[in-house]
Write a structure and sequence with these properties.
By secondary structure, the protein is an all-alpha fold. 43% of the residues lie in helices and 2% in strands. The longest helix is centred in the middle third of the chain and has 18 residues, at 60-77. The two termini are 29 Å apart.
């Protein structure tokens, strides 16, 4: 019953390398305390429109081309970045073989479920104070983790919400 959106962006190991390089390069007292899991650089890739999404895994050659462009973009800023595109392509194709049956067009999937009268529960983490736009910037996560972010992430109209429950 687990479904993965074909629009979900991939976080690569090199995003973690970049996260660490950026944190280490910050002047004393200016580091933001990242988890070094690569989330910030992955969001940078998304916003820069060079990120790769789960749906890109459907075609190995196109995936490899996009990955090379992605890596080349980051290498301009971080020349010491070491990424074996061939190896990464093979690794992610292996992941795709395991998840392919779970990948869906999430916007259609969720809206179809809603139209059929199914109950949809949206669960999120963090909350408003860590939201990139409404939180305690710059000490925030890289995403919109408030209810607005949930709606845009799902592709579900806010008018379809019955209730929002916050737990403190």
């Amino acid at each position: 019953r687990i479904k993965l959106s074909d629009r979900a962006h991939l976080v690569f190991d090199f995003h973690q390398q970049i996260d660490e390089l950026q944190e280490n390069a910050a002047r004393k007292g200016e580091a933001i305390g990242t988890t070094k899991k690569g989330i910030g650089p992955a969001y940078t890739s998304k916003i820069s429109r060079v990120g790769l999404r789960v749906g890109d895994l459907r075609d190995k050659e196109i995936f490899k081309q996009k990955l090379q462009k992605h890596v080349d973009t980051w290498k301009r800023a971080f020349p010491t970045l070491d990424v074996d595109v061939e190896k990464e392509t093979e690794k992610y194709q292996g992941y795709y073989e395991r998840i392919e049956s779970m990948v869906v067009d999430s916007v259609s999937y969720v809206n179809h479920a809603y139209d059929e009268g199914k109950k949809i529960m949206i669960e999120g983490a963090n909350a408003t104070m860590l939201d990139i736009d409404f939180g305690t910037y710059p000490f925030v996560t890289s995403s919109n983790c408030s209810i607005g972010g949930a709606m845009t992430g799902l592709g579900l109209a806010p008018s379809k919400l019955d209730a929002v429950i916050g737990i403190m």
